[in-house]
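As agreed, record minuted below.
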Amino acid sequence: MNKIVTFGEVLMRIAPLGNKKIKQSNQLEYYFGGTEANVAISLSQFGNTTQHVSAVSNDFIGDAAKSYLNKFGVDTNEIIDLDHPLGIYFLEVGAVMRASTISYNRSHSAFCNIDPKQIDWEEILKDCHWFHWTGITPALSYNAYQALKEGLEIASKKGITVSADPAYRSNLWQYEKNAIDILNELVGISNIFIGGPNEINELLNTTFLNSKEGFIPASKLLINEHPNIKKVFDKTRVSLNANWHKIRARMWNGNQYAQTNELEITHVIDRIGTGDAYAAGLIHGLMHYDDIMALEFANASCGLKHTIEGDANLVTEKEVLNIIQGNLTGRIVR
């Protein structure tokens, strides 16, 4: 069975019930998540073998986080316990024209204090087929960046496919290193790029438009600048309001441009983690189908995540294939 490794912070999400603001509620609910952990959970639901590498607090909160990942089939044997708190974020879920808002408390978290020497990448990546990372991880601390870089270098030497979702969040980069230089360095030892003209413009200091006419030349330039990148996949979103979105996916695989039909989500249940669901769907698709089907699988996975509460996408491969086949009515399955 294919093994996929992800590396990144595990967070606790805390939010009032429903669409309330925190100041009007005295009841809060929590979920565990984190970008890369969400990808691992979703891939596990699709039937893949997954392992998440991270660091959590050495207390009952850290234990609960690991148990949460275990519950959904993710191997947590390489998650380290440290005497630092688990990172958390607070969420207020918006509605209609009121946007959702997030406040992070993660700057002194266990993951930010991870020691690269504590991670045995040679052992972790043994029998591994895919390694996934995002730009969140190297932003959090210099140690996290060093640990990720070592993992990517070893994965590259072993011929493991590496997918990169190099989201640039300027407010996360607090240590004295050039964020764009680091992201370019890490993208340079990756094979699948998840992003479009906006992300490529940030990396290469270009001004491509977000249209098809901008996506194709941007992808070609990225591959030229980083020859290890073989394929570029992106998703686009139109938000009519907080509850009504339209999404579609597109790709350039070095030879061919393709895009999916638009999926319309008229009642968003949970917006968090939809990009992670796209990444997981894409990885699963590329491991099991051709490029076009992988693109369809990624878009359908992303669409379905909008209907799932919590950070991670908990739908099955069968449910995704059902959407791809055009079954969009949501009728009860008996």
User: Anything to note?
Assistant: The chain has a mean pLDDT of 95. The chain has eleven helices and 15 strands. The first strand starts at residue 3 and ends at 7.
